[in-house]
């Protein structure tokens, strides 16, 4: 395609938007609203998932061993645990480490209070592996495997917490998919209507162009450009608004509600928008192209 043809298509696409400014503004506004809601929803969901992921990192499985097991056997079990894809990390806790942790937890680290147990560790035989998962939904499969290992006496896990976190992630996924489909359908419909108006206004001009030998692509290109421009403009506006809104909200919450800093950890602005920006632009351009392309095939017989 020649540069002059590209320039003509771009110029006519802009003219179409200006000529049908009411419908174009309505399409841009709707696209902007869709992308804004999509971006807002993504920011909320991404932060929820980040918080849930932080909570998942605290969910662990504890493996206790049979009485009389040797350190070599314990090390062998550890090697098997380390090979599992479900495992993020694991720590060995000896019976002495377990007793020291109990002193810190129950006696406030006061060694004098626990001195009566000197030389007589009440947690003998309580050495264990503390295992953290890559994904909490993998817990059941890992527990089944661990219980089948020789030398393993007991496996403790947080089944209720794991199920709750897994179900929450599934629910968020379904809700996200439903909202995205609805927003995209609305945007395609409005852009399609805008392009239809443009075709109706230029129908006589298009007929003349065909009579003097214009190709189908040359006739259709301005309408494709129109749809893409509407999608692009409708994506950029909400992205700018969302960027400043998200940054200011995070700053406000951080400064005003410092008590929440230890409970809620928000994703940085760059982490959210390095994904949201290209996705939103691609969605906007894609919807603009799709809406105009479908309309042209339906209403423009060239």
UniProtKB/TrEMBL annotation:
Residue ranges annotated for the FtsX extracellular domain, each copy included: 59-155
Subcellular location: Cell membrane
Chief location: membrane
Membrane association type: Multi-pass membrane protein
UniProt domain ABC3 transporter permease C-terminal: residue ranges: 178-300
Pfam families per record: FtsX, FtsX_ECD
Keywords of this entry: Cell cycle, Cell division, Cell membrane, Membrane, Transmembrane, Transmembrane helix
Membrane-crossing residue ranges in chain numbering: 21-45, 174-201, 222-246, 275-296
Gene Ontology terms: cellular component: plasma membrane
InterPro entries reported in the protein's UniProt record: ABC3_permease_C (IPR003838), FtsX (IPR004513), FtsX_ECD (IPR040690), FtsX_firmicutes-type (IPR058204)
Example GO BP: cell division
Its biological purpose: Part of the ABC transporter FtsEX involved in asymmetric cellular division facilitating the initiation of sporulation.
NCBIfam families given in the database record: FtsX_Gpos
Similarity remark: Belongs to the ABC-4 integral membrane protein family. FtsX subfamily.
Protein name per UniProt: Cell division protein FtsX
Protein species of origin: Candidatus Galacturonatibacter soehngenii
């Amino acid at each position: 395609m020649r540069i002059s043809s590209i320039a003509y298509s771009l110029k006519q696409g802009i003219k179409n938007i200006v000529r049908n400014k009411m419908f174009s503004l309505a399409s841009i506004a709707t696209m902007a609203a869709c992308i804004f809601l999509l971006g807002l929803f993504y920011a909320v969901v991404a932060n929820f998932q980040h918080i849930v992921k932080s909570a998942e990192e605290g969910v662990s499985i504890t493996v206790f061993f049979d009485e009389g097991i040797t350190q070599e056997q314990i090390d062998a079990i550890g090697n098997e645990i380390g090979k599992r894809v479900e495992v993020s990390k694991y720590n060995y806790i000896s019976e002495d480490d377990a007793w020291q942790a109990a002193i810190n937890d129950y006696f406030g680290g006061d060694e004098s209070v626990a001195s009566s147990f000197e030389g007589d560790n009440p947690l003998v035989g309580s050495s264990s592996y503390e295992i953290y998962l890559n994904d909490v939904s993998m817990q059941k499969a890992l527990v089944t495997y661990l219980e089948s290992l020789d030398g393993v006496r007991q496996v403790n896990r947080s089944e209720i917490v794991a199920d709750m976190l897994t179900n929450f992630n599934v629910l968020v996924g379904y809700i996200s998919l439903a909202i995205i489909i609805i927003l995209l359908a609305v945007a395609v419909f409005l852009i399609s209507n805008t392009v239809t108006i443009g075709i109706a206004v230029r129908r006589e001009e298009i007929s003349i162009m065909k009579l003097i030998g214009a190709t189908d692509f040359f006739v259709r290109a301005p309408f494709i450009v129109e749809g893409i421009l509407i999608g692009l403009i409708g994506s950029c506006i909400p992205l700018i608004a969302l960027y400043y809104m998200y940054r200011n909200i995070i700053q406000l919450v951080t400064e005003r509600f410092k008590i929440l800093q230890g409970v809620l950890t928000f994703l940085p602005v760059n982490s959210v928008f390095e994904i949201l920006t290209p996705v939103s632009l691609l969605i906007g351009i894609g919807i603009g192209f799709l809406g105009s392309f479908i309309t042209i095939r339906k209403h423009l017989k060239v």
